[in-house]
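This part of the workshop introduces the protein records we will be handling. Getting from the letters to the tokens is the skill we practise here. An example says more than a description, so a record of this kind follows:
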Amino acid sequence: MPSLRAFFTKEQNLLYVKECVFRLERFEFGEGSPLATMLPVISSMQNEADAWDKYTQYSITKYGDALRTSLSNVSVQPELGNIEVLAGFAFIFASELELSSPNPIGEELVLFKESISREFESRTDRAGATVKFGMRQLPISIFKDLLNSDFAGNLKQMDSTAVEVDKKVKGWEQSLKNSEEKVTQLQQRLEQQGYGYNFMGLSQGFDEMAKVITKELVSQRLYLKIFGFLMLLPALVDVALIASGRVDLNIIPTFVAGAWAALSITTTVVFLYFFRILLRDIDAKNAQLMQLRLRMTLCQFIQKYANYAKDIRKEGGDVLGKFENIIFSGIVANHDKLPSTFDGIEQLTSLIKTAKGG
């Protein structure tokens, strides 16, 4: 909607209207003169300026300047000729007000229009031509102006606009449908991620335990290499001393050679003992890692499996019993071929006693 063009509410025009009312109140009209009915109309322009601005936009655009000039002329020279010209333009504005206003106009305006139309309809001067235009051509002019306005143009394009709006709405519906499908897919993926990586916090707990054990395995494997080297060190030292000629077995006393050999063997056995302990502990930790990884794998489908198993049991009893025994059974590494932690202690004790006795 275009903004209203103000006319009657402007300060300068309002001054012209007030001065004109003052002049008309003091002008001596003849008895029964139709011009005397114009005073309530001009007073209404002063008292109800907002309504006149709102419902006489066409007349303001086309004849606003002429009305302002007529008001000014009457204010300066309140003569009969100027008053008659003012009556003609006031008739145009009153006619548009009657056409545009949703409410009936007052009796004073009705009386003014009837009196002026009877008086000036047959006249050929400027006032008569103005009144004739207001009676015959003003409604058509207002209608033509409305048809050529932007508002009417928008009404003419309503069908094409409705088609475009319908296309956009359908496009939005399709886009919304695609978005809903993507959201559903993302929701399913999030559920799968929840099942796969952190079912009730178990997967995260298993993962933290696996990290701790893996860290311990790194250090224990380093110690295993160290003790493996230390286990071979006495023999390497003996071979190196004999090969370098620093030790001659022919001149070394028998008890010294025996003691040295017992010491080397004892040292080797001790290192071997700790080597075997580390080896067994590493093997046990590997078995723990295997079991933790099994449980982390089970967490990836345990929720869906639980729902599926519940439905199957309702229909066919314990159908998945054997499957559960296989899946949820623990994995234990085979330690049969490895010595236990304290294997060989009795032999080591006997060897030390023999060395002392020798």
